[in-house]
Known about the structure:
There is one protein chain. By secondary structure, the protein is an alpha/beta fold. The protein has nine helices and ten strands. Strand 9 (240-244) and strand 10 (251-256) form a beta hairpin. The protein starts with 24 loop residues before the first strand and ends with a helix.
Amino acid sequence: MTETIAQPHSPWSKSTWYQAKPEARQPNVIDFKNVTKTYLKGTPKEFTAIRDVDFHVEDIVGKGEFICLLGPSGCGKSTVLKLIAGLTPQFPATEGEVLVFGDEVVGPGADRGMVFQEYTAFDNRTVLDNIAFGLECRGMPRRERYDLVRTWIEKVGLNVTKDQYKYPHQLSGGMRQRVAIARSLVLKPRIILMDEPFGALDPLTRLRMQDLLIHLWKEVQATVFFVTHSISEAVYLGDRILVFSNSPGTILLEERVPPPDRPAMEMQREAEFNDVVCYIRDYIADLESKGSKKEQTP
């Protein structure tokens, strides 16, 4: 179940750094209703990844919500994403309900796009054809889809002239993730699911990709779920942060944070930004310490 920390304890509660403004809202984009996922149920290898996860995401008019999932490895963050995506073996939930736009998830859908940490480009396709793959599957005429893809090559910071005919092995890690993001966003999904997409990048490239993602998110106005192990990344990117416990994962902390209005490199130098990072870090450390003591109690 979700535990909400009293706002007076939050470093931004008395600060002008973050003053939430009311938004006009539509019916929920996503509802997780007491969701539990157990793998290999009824076998000796039975394993519960998440338990009683409950949260709701409203549709903000003119702006999707950016939600970051934080927690230790193996706590079920990726399971949450893949339950929303309708991907097996995570899908379906063992208990509870997963709803997207009010309807129960029955499998993958065009309203949801996913970007993984692993590079998922087709090795035998150029940048142009990798990004165009989904449009090709939808039957969009060749000229029309290539024209659209070229605009997205530019939007993600690649060079159409130099890069469109390159193959994945000719690209850096950051360039491959730009291709993956473009391939997802060109299909105009209403929900974007990102599973540690910047985890393998060097620190400077990672900051640049964070800035790019915020720019694109503001343009497409989609709801984003972003899994990360980096607290500073979550504080910079997110409107809301969900902190998960050790496995089986439950939501221990839910905090709203200010939307970024400056580049990541600039914001992460600021004292108030780092106060927020330390607040969440210390909260997680305290929870882990209490959990460790509880395990050692005979």
